[in-house]
Design brief:
The chain contains one helix and ten strands, in the order αββββββββββ. By secondary structure, it is mainly β.
């Protein structure tokens, strides 16, 4: 019985050693293109192959950091953040970063988006005449004006 228990522990220890953790540090800043100041509380998305996904927020200075921990070296690290004026993602792709690498991805985005009080979202819906399980939506939102 003791031999089986000892053998089980040796096998488990061997599995733990062979599946060592691999890490990559991702860091950078998100700044406002108009002022050059850091953008606080802005989301940055980080993905490593299909092994890891995270969304982190910038701090009050626009700085963010994250540590990717996986069981194998990532072939691709993708970092992206949303530009608030164009509503398109700015991104950085790093191919085959070495184990323990520090990947720096800085972004300069526009933060002067639309005036929230002028934007009115509205729609109405009705059942489709040919399929009762299908609902049609009609957009009646009022256009928003850009901030000058």
């Amino acid at each position: 019985m003791k031999k089986k228990l000892l053998l089980t522990w040796i096998i488990l220890l061997g599995l733990m050693i062979t599946q060592a953790q691999v890490f990559t540090i991702v860091t950078g800043t998100v700044t406002d293109e108009a002022t050059g100041e850091g953008v606080p509380g802005h989301e940055v998305y980080i993905e490593a192959d299909s092994l890891y996904f995270s969304a982190v927020l910038t701090n009050e200075s626009g700085f963010y950091t994250d540590t990717i921990v996986t069981n194998q070296v990532a072939q691709m690290v993708y970092i992206a953040t949303l530009d608030l004026c164009t509503f398109q993602y700015q991104d950085t792709v790093v191919f085959s970063p070495p184990q323990g690498a520090v990947v720096v991805a800085d972004f300069e985005i526009c933060t002067d988006s639309i005036v929230g009080s002028d934007c009115q979202a509205a729609f109405y819906s009705f059942p489709d005449s040919l399929n009762a399980y299908l609902i049609q939506f009609v957009d009646q939102s009022t256009p928003a004006e850009a901030i000058d």
